[in-house]
């Protein structure tokens, strides 16, 4: 009895093994898993582009794993820990993964990944110690967005790159008086790390030092930034904290721009684009020393432990350089880094998207934007989003004054950076 | 004899394997991790008591999350049990349609643990939500109850109270167990309603109170979903919803400090064990088991 069932079991196992290996050898099918976060529009665009890839490379099957941003990195890290991470994935903290040796050196696949059409200003943002560890999938530089109608009602001209922050604040204050209740002149940027970065870079500083071992600015710079916004908050020029903090948990529909609660805002240009009624323009204080750079929105990285490195890099190349894929992806990750694709998209863009493309073109002209900083150090994300949000909220809700919050911020940031190195 | 034992052990194997693989092994692993520096991406580095030392000497947010969670337990659990007992007393009497009422009062506790309710809760207390609408009739000016660090914790407490169904059902069963002759005897001795409640209901119900209190406290210490979903998800605004479990999750997953998070988990385990031990000891003084032994 036992013997016969064992025999059956053994033969079944053999049969199963035979089946699976037979399939592999005949079709030679390669399976890749791709993960990214984003809204439904981005997911649809990416699925379309991947379908084109599968058509062109019939031997590769691509499993997609789109998700929302909250929890994306939690899941990715857990998968890395258990050895089940996707072959290709979207990321925006290249050094964290590169430092642990988790990313494939894309520079070693120059025959597969064509980088000649991708601008140096983009490649630099994925380069660590001279090695290309991920490639920007698009750019979302900071801009000033505004509703011309509301500005006109306050008799205000749109600010230009030559406007100083002081003049800008004064104009916003003037505008605030002309706006109806429930609409504010300007969104509160005090907790926004990308906005603070522009401000710092205009002063020749940055979030982190060049070697990534320390903060790239002094406590006084942060105090100046927070004071600028505290003053506007006191005057009712920017919304009160309980309105602003509605979007702190990543609920983009609560964003003051998306909810049209403000006339002007500093804004990243690819994230949940504000549609009709909004115009794009340069930020104040940009003329003397531009703080804006062609910041990558997100990048594509390849898992160092992928079973199929060539095919994985091939997919990245396809998403970045194939004209058809470029058309399918559109501006779903911002203006594409491949300049030929970017300009081929222009005729098909709707007026709103065209504004964004025009703004990126404007930034490409010499003197209109700064060079990209080196990729953030490990822990950069924690410092930029968690620490800045938390300490700004302490100021908003009166739990700390600006000096105390800045001291605490610098102290905690040093601790995080010390832990990483 | 031995053969019969073997059969018993054989039947226990699935359970034992499950316990070993799914409970004991992860528990042991997390104890080990609590003495390491582990970022999920590279292998754990042994650092002895480093995590525990940092928790107690160099982490203000740890202390802050302990205070928030402790305060929440002290406020939310008694309020929820009070609401549950009050509802159970109302629903214990026999009257027409009582079954329907019991179901209706129980219903929220089935839903309240869900993500959907937490999100609805957030919408209810935000700008433009029904809570502001109703308060507006009484001239209270509109505000965001969830984006204000002074009020958000109270909306979470309200959510916890609202889901009083589970302890209520247990109270209800307990009330039904109290022998009617005790009330008759008390009535013969001239006891009024209050007297009957204090001298008959409360002591007879004390084992049930003890049970509900123990479960309520353990549950409240582990509050996670409402903290993450009604608050802004990161413990904000201004760390006002930084519950212990949320802080632990953030350290482990957001900041990739699994060793540190494991140390926090073990401290929580020890603290809960201490609270439970204290409750059991104190129960000798106030829990009455009716059999006079």
From TrEMBL, chain A:
Residues 364-383 are annotated as: Disordered. The keyword Signal applies. Pfam families: SBP_bac_8. Residues 1-20 form the signal peptide. PROSITE patterns: PROKAR_LIPOPROTEIN. This is Extracellular solute-binding protein. SUPFAM superfamilies: Periplasmic binding protein-like II. It comes from Nonomuraea antimicrobica. The lineage of its organism: Bacteria, Bacillati, Actinomycetota, Actinomycetes, Streptosporangiales. InterPro entries: Bact_solute-bd_prot1 (IPR050490), SBP (IPR006059). Keywords: Signal. It comes from the Bacteria.
TrEMBL record, chain B:
It is found in: Cell membrane. Its main location: membrane. Keywords: Cell membrane, Membrane, Transmembrane, Transmembrane helix, Transport. The chain crosses the membrane at residues 7-32, 62-92, 104-124, 152-175, 196-221, 258-280. PROSITE patterns: ABC_TM1 (PS50928). It is a multi-pass membrane protein. Residues 62-279 form the ABC transmembrane type-1 domain. InterPro entries: ABC_transporter_permease, MetI-like, MetI-like_sf. SUPFAM superfamilies: MalF N-terminal region-like, MetI-like. PANTHER family: ABC TRANSPORTER PERMEASE PROTEIN, ABC TRANSPORTER PERMEASE PROTEIN YESP-RELATED. Belongs to the binding-protein-dependent transport system permease family. This is Sugar ABC transporter permease. It comes from Nonomuraea antimicrobica. The lineage of its organism: Bacteria, Bacillati, Actinomycetota, Actinomycetes, Streptosporangiales.
